Fold:
Amino acid sequence: MPESPQEETIESALGESAQDKSTLGESTAGASSQGLSEQQTRPASDRLVLARAYRPLCFTDLLGQDHARRVIENALRNNRLHHAILLSGPRGVGKTTLARLISRAINCKSRKSGIDPCGTCSSCEAMSGESLDIVEIDAASHTGVDGVRDIVDGAGYRPIVLRYRVYIIDEVHMLSRSAFNALLKTLEEPPPHLRFLFATTEPDKVPLTVLSRCLRLELRRLDNATLASHYLDVSQREGRVLEEAAAMVIAQAAEGSVRDGLSLLDCAFSESDDKNITLAQIRSMLLLSDGHALYDLLDSIVEEDLALSLSRLDSLLDKGGQPEVLLREIMERLHRLSRFKVSGAIEKSLEPSDRERGALLSERLSLATLSRMWQISLRGYEELRLAPDPRASLDMLVVRLVCAAGMPLPSEVLSRLSRDNASSQPDDERGEEQDTSTSASSLSSKLRATFPNAKIEEQKID
Structure:
């Protein structure tokens, strides 16, 4: 039977795609298995940003999502993959990447190890370019019901080349209620050749009627150690040398997002022509303060030296530090000191001098004092973002921290007062009530005697 014009066009397009791919390099899946990136298969004039160049091309390359990967791999091996999967989680953790991997895996004719796409079969070659059977939709720009009607109308048609027609809808929570309602029936009972893959950062905005029809996989934020190790590996592949402490700072700034950290690493590569990327360069790029200067500021706060504390704060701000960023660094160190008081260990990724300064400072503060300083800083962070002058707000926060550092705990005050009161009163007068006018002055005098360094103001009680 002669081929139709449409089939001839499709076959010629696939042949051109495969020929173009052979000129640029082998398949991207094969490049990933050899430790190469997608970027290394492209000409130098067509470089991709790191977040795209080092996007995982097989399930084994997916970072930090072992729970979701295990579900997908078992479903693929047993041929029990759900027809609708909702991938949720924070930004930059691999939702869209995992959706693309699933779409490639279910259409591959000879998967490696039963799960990963081979990258060499006709289906993988067809998916290497723009395939009409894999449709990616940005729900943020297609919020109405018309786009969903196109999906419903085309659901009955079989895929042109691949085994399954896959709809990947990114930020699916942006669809309108009418669009969700139009999708419900097809989502519950789709044709055998149709698969839905949804990605969202706000699953609570997806209607329950949609959630009940999907297999939901929650992707997690990545820990700093995993991110730092990944950034070191990417730097090595790019021919750069990234310090371990600098990689950890980037991981902390990324806040669990692989993509955010790679964007920062891209910025670091562009900022310096030197192959070595140091901690000082990363701190300067992120407008972070020097670690030793921050510990100097905390030392003066603990010593209750307000003038020196404000002077050191001015020095940090004059060097280009931002009040909000500086306060976050102070809170980070208070948290680190609190963890050290509990566990007795500070992160190994920190510089030796930074670990030593933190250990010495934590010995001078109790856990209750650290907790109180954290609460003051957290309240001050909210005020800082609303204040008309953030720098003045940070000054007043340091004043409060200095006062809090030397302030006795309420439990200490009560226990010492009870002991002093019991030892100073005669046995026959301990049970008698004292006059209210004299109790305030006696309490003030006892407080001054118990805590000579504390500043206690006596107020008149009407």
Remarks:
- The chain has three domains: 5-218, 224-285, 291-405.
- Residues 1-37, 40-45 have pLDDT under 50 and may be disordered.
- Residues 292 and 354 are 7 Å apart (CA to CA).
- The longest strand covers residues 194-200.
